[in-house]
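User: I need a structural model of Pteridine reductase from Isoalcanivorax beigongshangi for a docking pre-check later this week. Nothing fancy, just the predicted structure tokens so I can convert them on my end. Input:
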Amino acid sequence: MNAVALVTGAARRIGAVIAEHLHQRGLNVLLHCRHSTAEADALAARLNQLRPDSARVLSADLCDPHAVRRLATEALAQWGRLDVLVNNASSFYATPLAAANDEDWDALVHSNLRAPFLLIQALAPALQAQQGAVVNIIDIYAEKPLTGFSLYCAAKAGLAALTKGLARELGPAARINGVAPGPILWPEQADSGDPDAIIASTALQRAGAPDDIAGAVCWLALDAPYVTGQILAVDGGRSQVYHGAF
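Assistant: Understood. Predicted structure tokens for Pteridine reductase:
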């Protein structure tokens, strides 16, 4: 039986590339999506052409705790095991202090923090049984917040703390780490900063690629058996060399 990975938010963008890389490493992949069912089905079809019955699609609203727990149950029911959990799904948009409301809190904190916690909680026994690993996709803004995005940054900071805090609870049988991307794919929102200024703030003076994140995820999940409780910045050196406002 092949090892199995669940990737949330796997229908498109970085999540899809992570799923493809894990599939290339020989894992069966569970592609979670919420609304992007057509894209998730298309990705699963491509992967299944490469290796029959190696990719399946699961849908869930990560803002609904009952749906998150159902997702965990459905994930385990697919192939009877889970070796890797990648918490990639995320909501991201500006919440200026004067305008932020309860719905913003729910959307940003639930998707970025509560859902990963609930999935880890529900899937920990299965992951520990396989000496498995969790990789959380965090953000460099968890350490150096982006102006106007305080709720998102607070949620990602919470996910970073959760990653570090759960390392001992999941060990010694399972590991948990995080990847904090810098400028990789530009956000679909138009209010998230000046691309030229952000790229200029990196040591490498260029944007990264989704493959950079997927490679880091695969390394932490599959190739780093003595690494846990760590957050790896994949940001072209931006978090180390830039001292102005992010």
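Before docking, keep this in mind: Helices lie at 13-24, 37-50, 65-79, 102-129, 150-170, 195-200, 210-222, 238-241.
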